[in-house]
Amino acid sequence: MTAELDFENWTCPVPLRDTPAVVMGHGGGGAMSGELVEHLFLPGYGAAGAATELADCAVVTAGDTRIAFSTDSFVVKPMFFPGGSIGDLAVNGTVNDLAMVGATPLYLSAAFILQEGTAMADLGRIAQAMGAAARAAGVRLVTGDTKVVDNGSGDGVYVNTSGVGIVPDGVDIAPHRAAPGDAVLISGDIGVHGVAVMSCREGLEFGTTVSSDTAPLHGLVAAMLATGADVHVLRDPTRGGVAASLNEIVRTARVGVDLVERDLPVPSEVSDACNLLGLDPLQVANEGKLLAFVPAERADEVLAAMRAHPYGAGARRIGTCVAEHPGMVVARTALGGTRVVSMPIGEQLPRIC
Q1: Which of 115, 169, 196, 246 is the most buried (most CB within 10 A)?
Q2: Rounded to whole angstroms, how far apart are CA atoms 352 and 197?
Q3: Domain residues of the chain, as ranges?
């Protein structure tokens, strides 16, 4: 075949891995996002972008102080959904990125890209939601920026937030610390946020209203650390869900994870929605849950501390970190078989955060 390939007229059920232009899958938090960072951004940045470990939050030092620094952008559609809005999602999302390295969140920035014609009433609701979420999380919004694009060039309101926090002495939480024998814990039901946004956007009903789980998790993390356990890894499974987060961890640490499928906390409404639409709950986004890798001998103690906190009441153990099959996540099914839990390629549900 010698004819030039016509990418524009190709169709595929999932985004193509090798494309001449950006596609939606590049923003999904899965394999395509990782490839974009590895093969485009990092080479472009060169030495200016050198990092020892890619994560949602960086830890840098200033004298004897370890500073956590994170940034994130939010483009969720619709801007308002059951249980939250783009405003509290932006605050909580950045607070949680800081919390996943054990930091105490302190300050946030907020930058807005507004489409001309956006209702002032909607923008006011978003600002109020951000203020309420910041107060609830105990952080301050200290700087920001606003830009406006032509009508039709955007989609209402996009928000970028950056956050700064302090990592306490003795806390060392990072993906490379996952170790064989660690218990893998999760703080509660999975897939709720993605289904809440999808049901609102598509007008789907599942017999009950599904509300987003968006919440600040630094208080839960503090309760876990207060046990004195050496928490090895924390991750909030947002874009790409539990599947993407676990795959990123095992590839960084060069370990494997064995999940027990019957122990995964998938609520019935999420299961019903995923069965209806052919989705994997492990790949559906969460905004108020965390995964933790902790030494097995301290798992019960950490679980008790999590369950005593409002945002960890449904915490449970879902698997084990193993030396076998490094770089791979495997789930044991109810029938006694196993399946590979792969890294999502793009995004099952676009524009969910």
Answers
A1: 246
A2: 6
A3: 55-167, 175-340
Other beta carbons within 10 Å of 209: 12
In degrees, to the nearest 5, what angle opens at C-alpha 56 toward C-alphas 341 and 304?
70
Whether residue 9 is predicted with pLDDT greater than 50 in this model: the reply is no
CATH 2.40.10.220 given to domain 175-340: no
15, 8 contact by CB (below 8 A): no
Percent of the chain with pLDDT over 90: 70
Matching fold, domains 55-167 and 175-340? no
CATH fold of 55-167:
60s Ribosomal Protein L30; Chain: A; (3.30.1330)
How would DSSP label each residue in 150-206?
-TTTS-SEEEEEEEEEEEPTT----GGG--TTPEEEE-S--SHHHHHHHHHHHT---
- DSSP β-bridge partners for residue 107: 140, 164
Q: Is residue 55 predicted with pLDDT exceeding 70?
A: yes
Return the axis-axis angle of helices 268-277 and 192-202, rounded to nearest 10°.
Answer: 60
Strands 316-322 and 256-260: antiparallel
- pTM for this prediction: 0.88
The Cα 158–Cα 27 span in angstroms is 14
Residue 10, pLDDT above cutoff 50: no
Q: Which positions ≥6 away from 115 have C-beta within 8 Å?
A: 148, 149, 150, 151, 152, 153, 154, 155, 156, 157
Q: What is the DSSP string of 90-156?
A: HHHHHHHHHHTTT-EEEEEEEEEEEETT--HHHHHHHHHHHHHHHHHHT-EEEEEEEEEE-TTTS-S
* Residues forming beta bridges with residue 81, ordered by sequence position: 84
Pairing of strands 157-167, 256-260: unpaired
The string of pLDDT tens digits covering residues 238-251 is 989 999 999 999 99
DSSP letter (8 states) at residue 213 = -
Q: Taking Cα atoms as reference points, which of 79, 140, 15, 147 lies closest to residue 353?
A: 79
User: For residues 171 and 150, what is the distance between their CA atoms, to the nearest angstrom?
Assistant: 46
| Six-digit token string for 60 | 């840098």
